[in-house]
Amino acid sequence: MPNLLCCKSATSYFASANAVNQYAPNTVIEPKHLDIQLKLNDLHDKRLTATVTITFGYGGQALIRDREELSSVTLNAEGFEQLHVEGASHSYDGHRIQLHWPEPFEKNTQRNVTVSYKVEHPIAGLYFQNEDSLMNDKECCWAITDHETEKARYWLPTIDFPTARTTLTWAISAPSQYTSLANGALISEQTENGYTTTRWKLDYPCPSYLVCFAVGDFVSVDAGQVDGKPVKYYTARGYASDDLERSFGKTPDMIKWLEAKVGVPFPWPKYYQIALPAIRGAMENISLVTWTDMLVLDKINAKERQYIVDIVNVHEMAHTYFGDLLVIRHFEHAWLKESWATYMESCWLQDNLSEDDFRFEMLTNAHGYMKECNKDYMRPIVTRMYDSSWDMFDSHTYPGGAWRIHMLRAILGDEAFWAGVKHYVEKFSTKTVQTSDFQASLEWASGLNLTRFFDEWLYSKGYPMLKGNFNHDLSRGLVEVSITQTQVDGDVPLFSFDLDIELTDDKGNKYENTIKFDRDATRVTTFVLCDKGTLPSMVRVDPHFRVLHTLDMSTDQRVLENTATQAEDVPSRIWAYNELIKNGSYSALKFIQDHILQEQFYGVRAQVSALLAKQKSGFALKILASMVKKETEPLAMSTVITACQIQDDTLREAILDVLSRADQLPYRAHAAALVALAVQQNDADLQYLLRVAQDDAKIGQHGLIRAGALKALGYHRSEEGFKYLISRVGYNIEPMRARAQALEGLKYSAEWQEKQLQRLAVETFAKLLRDPNLTVRTVAVDGLVALEARHIYNDVEGSRYLYSKDDQSWLDRKLYELYQSRSSAPDRSTKEHVDKLEERVRKLEEKLQQLDQSA
Hints:
Elements lengths: L2 H4 L13 E2 L7 E11 L7 E12 L13 E5 L4 E6 L2 E4 L3 E5 L9 E11 L4 E4 L13 E5 L18 E11 L3 E4 L2 E8 L2 E13 L5 E4 L1 E9 L2 E8 L4 H8 L2 H12 L8 E6 L5 E2 L4 E5 L6 H20 L8 E2 L6 H18 L2 H21 L9 E2 L9 H17 L1 H14 L4 E2 L1 H12 L4 H7 L7 E9 L4 E8 L11 E9 L4 E8 L4 E7 L7 E6 L8 E3 L4 H10 L3 H14 L2 H10 L6 H14 L2 H13 L3 H9 L6 H11 L7 H13 L6 H9 L9 H12 L3 H10 L7 H15 L4 H14 L5 H13 L6 H6 L9 H13 L7 H27 L1
Parallel strand pairs: 2-11, 17-18, 18-20, 21-23, 24-30
Antiparallel strand pairs: 1-22, 2-3, 3-8, 4-7, 5-8, 6-7, 9-10, 10-15, 11-14, 12-15, 13-14, 16-17, 19-20, 24-25, 25-28, 26-27, 26-29
């Protein structure tokens, strides 16, 4: 799964007080093969009839002493009906099937158990089309599976953990108008009496979370073959095949690139991708990758999102080697698949776009990881202490782990690193892996002892937070730079690493020194300039981009200005602009005003817009307004516009200027502009926002513009906007993808309404706790927490049955937040008072800047 789409929702803590160390189950008796026979009739019934024959074998090399372990096994199986088991005695409690044989297993023996059952309206794992997920074709039907992390059990009897892996054979019988897809190679299709039975076979061992099938009315694109292996794309009927081709068209070239990068042939007999509304993000099921339909792009959407689709495509494909061919032993090692897939996104950018794109993506990854560390919690990348396996799929595992892999590459160098990776993949192909296996492979390739690195960076938490001092002694012709690690606190260690610093003088001479951190908090390096009259012109810390860190170091404004405009690398330019904005003086901001629009790389402009919004001075917002008016790069537009969510007349004028070109805007930029306009809370804008929210010609693909308009009505804070949202958030009224944003708007708006309307919002959210749409339910829970509706606690708890086991730790956290909340939310007058105080502070800052300008 990709981080930007699937990473779990932020919470206030990682492991609860009740969390314990989690371990992989024993594999004394383990499943070796699943023969899965499925029968589906009318997909509207949301019913599956199944017969699964499981071949079990002894998993060890020599017999163990415990006869009970040799005679029994437990399968996960949630909510099965009409269960019948042959081949072993059994008991079933609605959650687990306990199998028992009268005689213990011997070495090299196998036994078959056949489980027949029905599943109706499963809450997870197997998803059928809902009424609100209909696309353009109202008669279209489909069903699809999506399992990560422990959801296969809701339709498939299995040991629902990664360490248990089986080969697969499939026989899927469905009405002949439907297409049936599954893992593996197509063996046959046979039609009889109006039903087509499709047979597939997978010869590679597959864990339960990667088992996948899909049945339905599909549009498809045949992309040919790569090395004799078919490549196809599917989505629900009602989408255009051109959109499928546009979205996934780079897939064949990506397969070739990935094979070359890892150095191991692509293993699967086919590579199919299917996009449907039920999928949360994207999932790397062996040979049948599933996607959310949100990533099927029309021409307009592609302007903003093709970049995202491409890196998600690489992410899921990278799991071929990291997660599928090599399967993690248990969830504490999730970084071995998700960190790797995240890092391969960046490697693809580096090899196929530019070094700037690579470094900006990695910088974005660093920011995402650090945000979770600073705002929510900080944990080791590898830990057994968690409440639910799904909790491990956070920003520590995705971008945080990706940075650890990048640092290992920097330490070893490309030749040794990729040799170690190839050795790792080849040695552990079709096996389970743990962190020590990866470490050993890199040590095999390099001869380096990496134990300290893994201890500090994987098994400990945190990252270096650096405070720098830059001093130039003109009389001696020296520049002294001291760097201090400031992160040491409790379990966060001093890290060992080398930090390069490059200095450029005003004659163009370059100097590079390396600070070596071992067990010291502070290290100092001195640059001797070529002559005493030479001045430092530019500084770059970590110019080769090798170390995960933050840096707080100001220097002469002239050095910052030169670095911001002349540094070769994107991170150094962003750092310099950040220091100038923190400086906040008129001259520093004037420099930014004069130069930021000449910056060639969109990511720098996007980052600077966010930094200016954070600074919030009048001059900073004036610069931001000019950036909004002139930004034309689709990849930057929504970010720059979102930065304008600040009440300010100049910003409102700029946003109206953007909206005057609404028909030319990409969808997300248009939606962001509507929300930014609403934040101005100008009464004159309300009717415009309502018109957009009601204009069926301005819905946008996947309801993106409509979603922005509905959210905007909430951010306007008006009673009229609030009441309109109340009338629109019910089931199947607005486009499915727009409902969550409508609820976000309602949640925000409710906090600004009078008590009576707040109670109406609470009632609405409480009703939506039972909504068929998972995303709507989760936003409804968030709304009740935001409104501190403690009296609804039991209603929230009562919705637990709608969540899969691995999702319930999220619900537990929300219940904890709700229980800890005050009995009533802050009233409207208090919020308005805070707003006025913030406005007064901003005006005082503007006066100080004016004085600075006069001086």
